[in-house]
Amino acid sequence: MSVETATATGEDTGTATSTASSTSVASAVTSPLPTAPYSVVWSGGHPYVREGDEGRTRWVGLDDRGRPLSLTDADLLRRGWSRTQRS
């Protein structure tokens, strides 16, 4: 039975679910960081705001102790990020 047939009839094959979840994970990882000024992203349970001019942009937020923390795009990509707060 094909995945399309199983989905149309409401049967759970397990294959469709794992394929769909891996696709959503891959698109979340490869999606580019927002470039608009004052965009907000979440990383490690903390919000970070994009600040700065064209040549020197940073993501600014607070660390676990409430101290200011400035991250580059590469830092944020390495740490992982999302557009919404994960619970």
Automatic annotation (TrEMBL):
This is Uncharacterized protein. Residues 1-67 are annotated as: Disordered. Residues 1-31 have a biased composition (Low complexity). The lineage of its organism: Bacteria, Bacillati, Actinomycetota, Actinomycetes, Pseudonocardiales. Residues 48-67 have a biased composition (Basic and acidic residues).
